[in-house]
Amino acid sequence: MSQVRVHNFSVSLDGYGTGEGLSLDAPFGHAGDRLHSWFFPTRTFRAMIGEEGGDLGVDNAMARAWADGIGAEIMGRGKFGPQHGPWQDHEWNGWWGPEPPFRTPVFVMTHHPRPAVEMQGGTTFHFVDAPPREVLRQAREAAGGLDVRIGGGPSTVRAFLAEDLVDHLHVVVVPIVLGRGVRLWDGLEGMEQRFRTETVASPSGVTHLTFTKI
Amino acid sequence: MSQVRVHNFSVSLDGYGTGEGLSLDAPFGHAGDRLHSWFFPTRTFRAMIGEEGGDLGVDNAMARAWADGIGAEIMGRGKFGPQHGPWQDHEWNGWWGPEPPFRTPVFVMTHHPRPAVEMQGGTTFHFVDAPPREVLRQAREAAGGLDVRIGGGPSTVRAFLAEDLVDHLHVVVVPIVLGRGVRLWDGLEGMEQRFRTETVASPSGVTHLTFTKI
After folding, report:
1. I need a surface site. Which of A26, A75, A88, A202 has the fewest CB within 10 A?
2. How far is Cα B119 from Cα B128, in angstroms, rounded to an integer?
3. Contacts of B170 in chain A (CB under 8 A)
């Protein structure tokens, strides 16, 4: 059976996966780039944005696993864009330009479906109004036997964790206190009991935690 | 100037420093001993309870610093005991038996002062109804030039952090989701900017973070 995986999901010490006040200019709100500054120097990130070079240390080693064996991604509407309510038009196709780094079908969970959009490089955005289990069924079908990645944001990851649908969770704890935003861990009391955990600290200051389903 | 230090302060991934439902039988409420199970095997903890042996790994190395150069401790009433409101009697002298491990003056912050109690082995409990800055003044005086430790619980540590009175903070992030209790980080947005941080993961699964005042 294909696995359901979460990778490179950054949270602050107080558990926020994104800040407050998300907008076109601030995809993570007041968090700015503080949750992801560990990620930008990695070779994995630089390849995602079409650049060469980058670090090959532990942060990259952990980040690198994100795409291997993935056949589809599921993301919340908040990851796709900052808009709320019915779409005003269909011109917005995500933050990632004409050639998004996913290169698989991507299922965007929204109460306001719109026609699928095929991007350059293998990414097709599908818009689905369905609960996690049904979206996962569709994503698995599209993944053709490969794994499905839950791409975020925090509410989406939390929903799949709450329904015990996640096999592998990679969380990056960043040593900042964000204070406001959307929390990952709410309502997940005791979830660690369903997983085996590993922890490794990086010289960058972040801690990588992996949760592997028992 | 003597420093103000916090040591061995465990929090869950969701930031709780203690659970819900504290009682005589459950000093950390529903958290049980999950926040501190990394600590019990260390030589430092075993020495605190008068036992020999114990591990000498990274958990012990980090834990061991707690007593060096400390001349006084400040703790909240919730760390001293599970009672609330006016004292029914003065028979309760903490969880630690006749010879507590502190071996210094200990200032218990409470709105219900009572006479000081001298215990065996050098610990004297003083009960003070005063704000953090004034309690610290008294503790510094009692510490005779040595450092002052803020012993917890989470509300007490948070109060001293909020007033920027802490020079060294050692937090242990335990990979569990506690879900309920008292949070450490509330109201401390951006506090990391006042500190230099270091992170080290332990094979026990916990992560030690130190915050050193810039």
Report:
1. A88
2. 17
3. none
